[in-house]
Design a protein that fits this description.
Blueprint lengths: L12 H23 L3 H11 L8 E5 L5 H6 L6 E6 L2 H13 L6 E5 L12 E7 L8 H11 E12 L7 H21 L4 H11 L4 H9 L3 E8 L4 E7 L1
Parallel strand pairs: 1-2, 1-4, 2-3, 4-5
Antiparallel strand pairs: 5-7, 6-7
Length: about 240
């Protein structure tokens, strides 16, 4: 059974995730950086560097949220970045951010479903995702569509939470994720479910070698997993 934010509701995971992000969109950036102590910014920078040698000109950022990963990817000097997300609330916050920074001519944000991307085959030089794939309703379907829209030879770079395996990081991480993070998230975002869903979704996600196996299953080759910060997160790379 899929992990969902609102266990008392009948809607599917996709609809619930969209509702959750709409609810927390105005506080999302603050909470993201605060709860990770700003380390999430470093993780995105490292992920973008994985594409430096490829010099991608057209990049798709899936589950773009408020556009942080897309903005980071401008370091690659692409011609265009398109960000898609199912949450209109998150996209609205992202558009405000882009306009304020005068980046809206280089990054375009669109409403989009990661499992039914409205782009032709073989369109993008790179597809990037940060902290989004674990929210897919159907993981394989979403990854297959990412593969479909990539050009042959193109790469995907995915940043996602992992589960630390070694003492004492494993125990400290589990305590923080289970008891501290949900309480802070609830107080600041006013959404009781959002930051309870986060640790539950991370726990259910097939990280490490298990996720590489899924990438290979849908067609990606030359797959790699690079753990970050004692295994709290990982960067995954795959090539079409």
């Amino acid at each position: 059974m899929a992990v969902v934010p609102y266990k008392d509701k009948q809607e599917g995971k996709k609809e619930q995730v969209a509702e959750m992000f709409n609810n927390i969109s105005k506080k999302y950036d603050f909470l993201n950086h605060f709860l990770s102590l700003g380390i999430d910014i470093t993780w995105r920078k490292k992920a973008v560097k994985m594409l430096a040698a490829d010099k991608p000109k057209l990049i798709l950022d899936i589950a773009t949220g408020t556009g942080d990963f897309a903005i980071e990817a401008l370091a690659l000097n692409p011609d265009k970045i398109i960000g898609v997300d199912i949450s209109e609330g998150m996209l609205a916050e992202g558009r405000k951010k882009l306009k304020k920074r005068k980046l809206d001519d280089r990054i375009e944000l669109q409403t989009g479903d990661s499992e039914r991307l409205l782009f032709e085959d073989n369109k993008f030089d790179a597809v990037i995702v940060s902290f989004g794939v674990r929210n897919f309703e159907n993981l394989e379907k979403g990854l297959r569509d990412m593969y479909r829209v990539l050009k042959p030879g193109g790469k995907t770079v995915i940043v996602e939470f992992s589960k630390p395996k070694k003492f004492p990081m494993k125990q400290g991480y589990n305590f923080y994720f289970k008891y501290i993070l949900p309480q802070i998230g609830k107080i600041v975002s006013k959404d009781n479910a959002a930051y309870t869903y986060l640790p539950e979704s991370v726990q259910a996600f097939p990280d490490g070698e298990d996720f590489l196996a899924v990438l290979k299953k849908v067609g990606f080759k030359n797959t790699q997993c690079k753990p970050l910060t004692f295994g709290i997160s990982s960067i995954y790379i795959g090539q079409k």
